[in-house]
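Forwarding the complex inputs:
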Amino acid sequence: MKRLLTLTTAMGLIAGPAVADVNLLSWGGAYGNSHLEAYAKPFEAETGIKVNMADADNPATPIKAMVEAGNVTADVASVEYADAVRLCDEGLLETIDASMLMPAEDGTAAADDFIEGAVTDCFVGTDVYSMVLAYDDSKFADAKPSTPADFFDLEAFPGKRTMRKGAKFNLELALMADGVAPDQVYETLNTPEGVDQAFAKLETIKDDVIWWEAGAQPPQLLADGEVTMAYAFNGRIFNAAQGEGKPFKIIWDGQIYEMEGWVVPKGAPNMEEAMQFVAWTTSPAPQARAAEFISYGPPRKSAAAMVGNIEGTEEPMGPNLPTSEANMTNALGSDLDFWVDHDAELNERFNSWLAG
Amino acid sequence: MAQALDPHAAIATTASGVETDDGPLRTADGMPLARALARSQTQARRRAFLLVLPLLAFVMITFVVPIGQMLQRSFYNDGFSANMPQVSEWFAATEPGTEPGEDGWAALAADLQASAEARTIGVVGTRINYDVPGTRSLFTSTGRKVRDGIEPPYREALLEIDEEWGDPVLWGAMRQASTPLTTNFYLASVDRTRAPDGSIEQVDPRQRVYVMLFMRTFWLSALITGLTFLLGFPIAHLLATLPTRKSNLLMILVLLPFWTSLLVRTTSWMVLLQQQGVINDILVWLGVIGNGGRLQMIYNQAGTIIAMTHILLPFMILPLYSVMRTINPSYVRAARSLGATSWTAFRRVYFPQTLPGLGAGALLVFILAVGYYITPALVGGSSGQLISNMIAMHMTDTLNWSMAAALAAILLGSVLLLYWIYDRLVGIDNLKLG
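Prediction (whole assembly, two chains):
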């Protein structure tokens, strides 16, 4: 017995380092679930490398804390693009060698297959989500709202609105509603007059806005009848409409899309496995699979066609994704450099404006 | 006459000591009694200290050290000075306001290049961006261009990359950041900024937000403390005077919400107070208000006040109750029998005796309210935001932890100041939690 024990222990020691785990830091909720089902489980089955998932409110915050304290326990983390830019610039992330990313099934190189900006020095995109306008279909019998301008039209479309409590997204939306073309939005916002213009437009509906803080609030406010229109993340509206059968409709006109993706914290304990995980999960098939769990689009062009039905139903997921062609006709890509530069300044002004 | 003064010490003075010994009292082994006593007391103290040592270590490791480190960030940020050594040296060697010569430009270019190679350029840019918004990308984009080398003349080369490098405001900000110690985060926390010439001025009126939020936080906390007192005092009195069986039942009603999750209670208030919520529905059904005139009771200051008052109520009731229970009812009866009206008896005899509980409850409620975060975030709307919401924003959204630390330090300082005032006015010995 004792010998057996010694033997197994020794074997465990030898085998130990060879099958290191990947510690994945994700967001929890439906989004975390898509990571578990589409990435972690199949990766484990395919490679035998165990994936340990942990959740955080926003994984960027613990990463900053971990690296600065020199005690890194996560190997891969899912973060928003803006945070990836910031963390990368501050030297808190490992660089990811883009050449290890897998090519598309038809042989197209990964660099050409990913949409623009989806792969940077430290970041590989996993999904595209967007801020969209949504309304309660049952509240508008005749004309339906269809543009950002309609969101600001309290006479034609009465009722309260709900918007995210913060400057980001709202300023862009206000400018688009004021007739600024999507490709001019950030140019305009870069001037003091442009910022004034955006705040002036927001002022027109200020008294009729309920400001939300958590992503789960807007569908709840719509469902309770507190508001008739919402400006929210597309995944949340989709889940309420699809999963709970609510009469919510999404307006894709004027959507502002952004990316989330993997980063590897500086000094990650299982670097090799982490890179393997990043490469495998960003290949087209897992990306398409993840989009079946949550309505966030894959950032690889070749993955778009591979997205099947909404998990558990017979309906195609395609039309619900921000990346589908029909939804992209009047869309704005969020400018991360702009927001990393002006985040604090514009949020201070926003909060001052809110309180005033 | 010779008694064992301390049970820990084996003291035995000789019976004959009184007549024969002319020195001090001694123990059996000949040691002076005073010294033996001191030694045994030191031992007892050491043993007592060993008992609290685990707690002390726990508090140090999990509380004092992390908070100290966090607070340090509010006045110490070496993001620029540590990664831009040459230009920092140039700043140290020149007078404030000096027009940068070619030596200054050369130091800047060399630092930018080194920092871009070491991937610390973002830290540098982020640090300057705190003071001059919009400059982070100036540093990172310039860094990408100079990473592979830059040729003199450096002034022309950098201005060629971006004209903004010639901005005196930028150079002023770099000079301020060239030493790691800074008061800028504290200045920003009170809506002040440093002009390029070093003088302190208020920020643009449209950017002012922190002073207003601090005032609102303290005003709302005081109001909530007052409301919990008004609501909690009669209940605590009832609890203390009812027969045990009835008061136990009432106590459970007080404690039940206390045991319920904070989030559950906050969301219940949403269900009750929102425009399509229970209270508005009932008012409409009763005909008190029309369907179009539903009251806005949540997502504004009213929502914050109502929800926080409810959540913090037990913290006022419990200390009051425990003090009231110890008040002897015969005092009031005596006052009444001596001719006091019931109001006078309450005001001059009963109420002063409840002060220790009131003080403890008020202090608890106020300090908790000052730091409240999740409830105002969820039900506060735009007018019910507190300063803690801005701290959270800087912690999680803008990742400007120095600013979050400065705001938190000011909050902590003001609470300590209030505590000190309380101590001077009421006396901290007069505090009773139970």
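The CA atoms of residues 341 and 347 of chain B lie 10 Å apart.
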